[in-house]
Amino acid sequence: MRQGAYYEPVRLVRRHFLRTFLHFMMMSILPMACIFLAYSIYYIPKESSNIERSSLNSLSGLQETISLVFNDTSKVTNILDSMNDIDVLHRMFSSPSPGQFEDYDEFSVCKQLANYMNAIVNSRTYIESIYVYYPNGKHAYLTNQMNIWNDETSLDPGWMESIPVNRRYSISRRRIPGNNYDTLTVMERSSRGFYVAVNFDMLFFERLLTMLNPVEGQSILLVDRLGDILAAEFASSVSREDRALVAESISEAVEAASGMNVSRELSGFTVFFEYMDDFGILCITAIADRDLFSHIYDLLRIMVVAIALCSIASVAISLGESYSVTRRLKEIADLFDDARKGRDTHEGRTRGNDIYQYIYDHLIRTFIRNEYTRIALDEKEIEAKYLELSALQYQINPHFLYNSLQMIDFEVLRDVGRPCAANSMIEDLSRFLQYSLRNPEASVMLSAEVDATKLYTNLMKSRMGDRLAFEWEIDDDAMDVEVPKLIIQPLVENSIQHGMAGDSSDLCISITVSVEGKSVRIAVRDNGSGVSSSSLAELRGNLVSDSAMTESHIGLRNVVRRLRLRYGQSFQCSVDSTEGRGFEVVFIIPDVENAEEGSDDEWN
Question: In whole angstroms, what separates CA 502 from the centre of its chain?
């Protein structure tokens, strides 16, 4: 922070230069920018709205025409729903041999219905044929030519594959075998369970789309509810690549429509929809953006070129004016730099009777005097941090040492004269103390820190017995990272002291060491009594405060301060707890890949 303060005047001069430069730039470019903004806010949205309205009007006309054409199916279903002799048709289709007239009534009713359907076919040049079907075992159906076909005799066996099951209408494009007609089949289910299929000539719909006269870059399509294209008309300027892109985007367009009339940007195209919910088809028009706004883009390019030329001229003028205004301020910044480096602050300077000369004569002396004071304060601050680090490093919990030695003494007195658990405890304690107290300022491998913590947990396990359990999850890739001593053991000790406080229940402590990117993550969590939300907030404040230490969680705070002294702002720490549900501490130690190799001689 101090070193950055040396260059603060230089930064201020640069900021002043930048502000002056931007001021001149804004004065020259602002008029052009306002014109450009007005064009973008008013003209472009208005033009886009006009195109959208025109496209939706064309689609609405197309929708009305198609609805009128498809209503021919409703004429037949209305006849079926209003027939007095409908039971005769039911009996004929439901007989063991559908399609064979068992009496004159069946023949008469079928003849009457076929004549009506044939009249519709003859009066509509775009209708190829009409079928009437009632579900039966042999899939027999009646045609407008008074033919009754079934599975064995049908000349058009595939038309029933798209019979609507859960809806009133279904539409499919197919070819009728034999005459190879390209047909759009519209099927409707009547209220009495009959299905009417009208086969339309696809040439009619292609001519219908052509009559809309698509503009440059426009594509007009009829699409079913599954995204399959039923009919399409492309302007001559639409390339093969654009046609393929439109076809690939159809499924997305169908999903976007969702039964609504909308406009949408899709894969470089502006797409408009008209959804015919009764029939489950969409009328779609897609226009490539480069064609839709081509004249707008031309005007934009002219404006951009004009603004660029004005900007170049403004930059040249603004640079000259800004340099003239800030030159003397730059001299002051250089003056401060010379004073800091011990050079003659008056050498080579222009002198005059102005405000800048006043700054030369008075601020230099003040700067030099403050510089010496700052250096002395820095030295004291560094010395204080060093003493604090040494004091924190040498600290060891007296309660832990006292309780461990007392417990070992009781074990030796009970089992004197032969090897027992006390021997292992004494050895673990000896190795732990050797690790803790020898070369306290030295760094160690993380593997050595983990091993030392396991010695401590062995001792505490011997003391607490089955009330205390530990779970380790160690990433081998993190073991070669160099860290300060005693950064994990105090966290475990903190969990034991506070997790079992006033509670006789069992305690499980989990220690996790893992690599995350270039950092090492150390987490210690327990299932103990935890702390309240107010105590947790106070603890978090103490961890980042430089005030006097409190008695609560002093080991945790010591570790956090040591790691911050070493790693600075790159070190991260978080604590979390819920009262009655445990406590968790997480450390993030930075820059694993660049960590130097340490030594674990404490275990030799």
Answer: 46
